[in-house]
Amino acid sequence: MTSPPSSPDSLLGLALLGKTGLAFAVVVASILLCGWLAKRLRPGHTRPGAHLRLVGSTQVGQRERVVIVQVQGRWLVLGVTPQHISALSELPAPADEPAAPGTPLAPAFAERLAAAVKQRLTPAGNDTP
């Protein structure tokens, strides 16, 4: 028994489909890799079990920075240059720590904003709440 001959057009279509599938797999893998790297390298991000957290930093020269790092309830003020890192000061971490970026604002602010918007939207002379 002989197999039916394959046409060159069907082989070309299969090769094109394979190339397209491979390109799609590469794009999906790249997206997943970028997402993983973004989570891993996020500034101020602490991994479970990590005892180090970046509180803040500021540029003081072209390549010099002052960085505040929290380590086990203590703030370390560090001077950072391309050559070395120097401890400038050590402070106890304040009890009222500043809110981390991305945390919701206090409810009092939300209530005040809602009241201000409501007051702005009510017509003048209408005192009904």
Automatic annotation (TrEMBL):
It is found in: Cell membrane; Bacterial flagellum basal body. InterPro entries: Flagellar_biosynth_FliO, FliO/MopB. The chain crosses the membrane at residues 20-38. GO terms for cellular component: bacterial-type flagellum basal body; plasma membrane. One of its GO terms (biological process) is bacterial-type flagellum organization. Coiled coil: none annotated. Keywords: Bacterial flagellum, Cell membrane, Cell projection, Cilium, Flagellum, Membrane, Transmembrane, Transmembrane helix. It comes from the Bacteria. PANTHER family: FLAGELLAR PROTEIN FLIO. Belongs to the FliO/MopB family. This is Flagellar protein. The lineage of its organism: Bacteria, Pseudomonadati, Pseudomonadota, Gammaproteobacteria, Pseudomonadales.
